[in-house]
Amino acid sequence: MATTTMTSTRLRLNSSTQLRSRTMKAAVNLQLAEYDRAGTLKAQDIESVSSVPSKNTSNISSRIDILHPTPRKQVWRKILDVFLPDGYPNSVSSDYTSYQIYDSFQAFAGTIAGMISSRAVWEGLGVGDSSASPTGAMLIQVIRECMGKLGTIYFAHLIGTSIEAECKAYRLGADVLTDAAMVLDCMSPYFPGEVRFLVLCCSSVMFSAAGVAGGASKSSLSGHFAKWNNLGELNAKDGSQETVISLMGMLTGTLVAYTCSPTGWV
């Protein structure tokens, strides 16, 4: 596995030369040890040199072996290493763990709320109603998506320059906007047709604003957490964490949606 951390190298050179009549043999052993900033051994490069005597010269052949340490870890630690950056906790800032815990709880609850709000939107669009028009529902969804995309462009231009300085506030604001948009989606089936369309468009615009604020502010926070210039790995592992949390949220959300539905799965 390639590491993005800077490594220190220790060099050891052993050489011995023996001269004999009509034969010369030379052996040179080179060893390189790579350590991360926390002093943990990451790999050893060992060169083995051997000589084959001939009448005139000595033909020297060499090989390099790369040895990776295999420390003994408990099963739970090996599972955590899949979702944590290399070198954790030394490779991240001190507030990384607490932030990820709260962010995981938010993502778990957000996934459940998203499934409930999506069910309400589909109900408002006529799913389960034999008299509803599929074409009309499709047009409403297309217009809603267009409003969201236009909102993304507008809010990126409006708040793009201020997100870096106030990334914490925008990260919190993104969650508030997302929750408010989900509430509107859940309430949409209770509005008449014309008003329901406006409510759905409004929630789509709120989702777009939350996406701009949340995505940009999260990038700034990730740059703060990455101590070893491991921003790419940090984002990749964060994606793995969100995937697992989303899967757990979808399973729980399915049970919640079934419980809240008066007709069960239908």
From TrEMBL:
Q: Which Pfam families match?
A: UVB_sens_prot
Flavoprotein found in the keyword field: no
Chief localisation class: membrane
Check the record and name the InterPro entries matching this protein. Answer: RUS_fam (IPR006968), UVB_sens_RUS_dom (IPR054549)
Q: Name one GO cellular component term.
A: membrane
Q: What does the UniProt keyword field contain?
A: Membrane, Transmembrane, Transmembrane helix
**Which domain of life does the protein's organism represent?**
Eukaryota
Q: Show where the Protein root UVB sensitive/RUS domain sits.
A: 72-260
- Subcellular locations according to the entry: Membrane
Protein family (similarity comment): Belongs to the RUS1 family.
Q: What is this protein called?
A: Protein root UVB sensitive/RUS domain-containing protein
Natural source organism: Periconia digitata
